[in-house]
UniProtKB/TrEMBL annotation:
The chain crosses the membrane at residues 170-189, 209-227. Residues 3-152 form the TIR domain. SUPFAM superfamilies: Toll/Interleukin receptor TIR domain. The lineage of its organism: Bacteria, Bacillati, Cyanobacteriota, Cyanophyceae, Nostocales. It comes from the Bacteria. This is Toll/interleukin-1 receptor domain-containing protein. Keywords: Membrane, Receptor, Transmembrane, Transmembrane helix. InterPro entries: TIR_dom (IPR000157), Toll_tir_struct_dom_sf (IPR035897). It comes from Pelatocladus maniniholoensis HA4357-MV3.
């Protein structure tokens, strides 16, 4: 079942026609991810006529969950992209409110300095132009982005990833043992003047090799799974988690409110526009998880989110007055099954702060 969590992906691309063509190609490879998981992608070409482009990009930089920086010589040569966009994106990454993923389109000298330990895509930081055909690179990038999206939407992601890694390591060590056994029997069956002595020596040697291999495996590979790990695409950040996303016990009340509606004929969040009607909060966009918003109308705080679109509303926990600040804990859609209407209700799980909300 496709996830209904809102994952907003922002493309940061230069004005170069070559870069734009690659961005479009990457977006095509992300199409399955949009329909299966439910993500929203946005780029500067979607800015409506009459709007201030710099203000629009700045707003997207502040609300995106995943920021893709498409690195090329044109991108690094742009004063705005390299010194403004990258700086703002990296600040959100350091604050752990967004994930920055550099995507290396072409070879560029000295591009890694602003990104520290963050790993770029494609795999091995091999530029897209070095892959033949380029589709192989875009498929690899899409796979890396999928992993990050799953980490953001699946609470069991780390467990599943650890299981896959351990299984892979066991298969590798199993293959080593099988090859050692085959080699041992090969020598045992060879004619020799000292046949029995050679057999005994080879058996002892094989046992020692197997024990050493198993010991190395346990020490080097298994121990690293004791502690949870972040996605390989991203650096491990040891900073404290966002205070606004701390335990629910920091809030006076936790519940669900309807924050607005959105038009989407596909009944998921893969639509290109993320503008929504939000009469109850001071945001024109789907709010990012962890964002502090202000209630603008009297809102009924529900104990839980209703399931069917037209079901009886859940019991009320509290009344939220205009001006109250709350923290967004989760955002979800609510759509009537088999409905042909493009309109979806957007609900948010919020935490009402005791006194003030920390950002």
């Amino acid at each position: 079942m496709p996830s209904t969590k809102v994952i907003e992906v922002l493309y940061c691309c230069s004005d170069s026609e070559k870069d734009e063509q690659m961005r479009q190609k990457l977006d095509e490879h992300l199409s399955p991810l949009k329909s299966q998981v439910g993500i929203i992608s946005w780029h500067q070409g979607m800015i409506s006529p009459g709007r201030e482009w710099e203000k629009e990009i700045n707003t997207r930089l502040e609300t995106a969950d995943i920021i893709l920086l498409l690195i090329s010589s044109e991108f690094t040569a742009s004063e705005y992209h390299w010194n403004v966009v990258v700086k703002q994106a990296m600040q959100r990454h350091k604050n752990r409110t967004a994930r920055v993923i550099p995507v290396l389109l072409r070879r560029v000298d000295n591009w890694k300095i602003p990104f520290g330990k963050i790993k770029a895509l494609p795999k091995g930081e091999k530029p897209v132009t070095d892959w033949k055909p380029h589709d192989n690179a875009f498929a690899n990038i899409a796979e890396g982005i999928r992993e990050v999206v799953e980490e953001l939407t699946d609470s069991n992601f780390l467990v599943k990833k650890t299981y896959r890694r351990i299984r892979k390591e066991f298969i590798s060590i199993g293959n080593i043992i099988v090859n050692l056994v085959r080699l041992t029997f090969y020598f045992l069956l060879q004619p020799s003047r000292h046949c029995w002595r050679n057999q005994t020596n080879l058996i002892n040697l094989s046992k020692q090799i197997i024990m050493v291999a198993l010991a190395i495996y346990v020490i080097v590979h298994v121990s690293k799974y004791v502690m949870p790990q972040k996605s390989d695409v991203l650096e491990t950040n040891s900073s404290k988690p966002n205070q606004s996303m701390s335990s629910k016990q920091n809030f006076a009340h936790v519940g669900w409110i309807r924050i607005g509606t959105i038009n989407d004929s596909s009944h998921n969040f893969s639509n290109k526009s993320r503008f929504i009607e939000t009469p109850n909060i001071n945001s024109r966009f789907i709010p990012l998880k962890g964002t502090v918003v202000t209630i603008t109308n009297l809102v009924s705080l529900k104990k839980y989110k209703p399931e069917p679109y037209d079901s009886k509303l859940p019991p009320e926990v509290d009344k939220l007055q205009p001006g109250v600040k709350v923290v967004i804990l989760e955002v979800d859609s609510l759509v009537k099954p088999k409905s042909k209407s493009p309109r979806m209700q957007i609900w948010a799980q919020i935490g009402k702060c005791h006194r003030t909300c920390n950002q």
